[in-house]
Amino acid sequence: MSIKKRIYILEDEIDVANLVKINLEKDKYSVNIYTNSSDFLTEVSKQKPDLAILDLMLPDIDGIEVCKFLKKDGELSKIPVIMLTAKSEEIDKILGLEIGADDYITKPFSVNELKARIKAVLRRYSSNDKPKEGLRHIDDYTIDFNKFEVTYKGQKIQLTTVEFKIIDLLSQKRGWVYSREQIIDYLWGHEKYPTERTIDVHINNLRKKLGELGEKIINVRGIGYKLEE
Full-prediction pTM beyond 0.90? Predict the structure, then answer.
């Protein structure tokens, strides 16, 4: 018998939370609802979920700050995060992605679309449980496929799953130009919800984190990105 995936929902609109909970439980997920960030963070510190769905507008600590907290913690950073919010402006979506959210869905939303995105995110993380063997060395950087880590002179660089997979792809063929469409295919396969702009956000984040190696990630105008040889 397969173990149920555990999902935590941080949402102060109880009708919305219950709607999501009922539909996810039909798909055999185990679902917990939290209406404030304090209770959510207390529970997460005790038992990590397989995925977290965060609202942005909350009565105490907003969803952006909660996501920042999760992504700064070594263990909690591995929890996939989907933002669920009434804010639909592009700047809000970009902010959510920049701090490490895996996906972003605006209200009102389709329950079926939400379920599809949850499956896509969980599938992406599940595939990381079967890593490639060995290490890839680039100058003073090491990509470790057993730990899903990138280190610089032995110091770990905190990357999200999407960021790790991007540097994995670009470093497979240095100097090879990958289109944004090819990068989206590699990251999400047929579930192409993210836009090309989303890739730009993740790349910019990756550049900042990787320092010298990040400077070698070059934007090829009108096409995509490459890692310089």
Answer: no
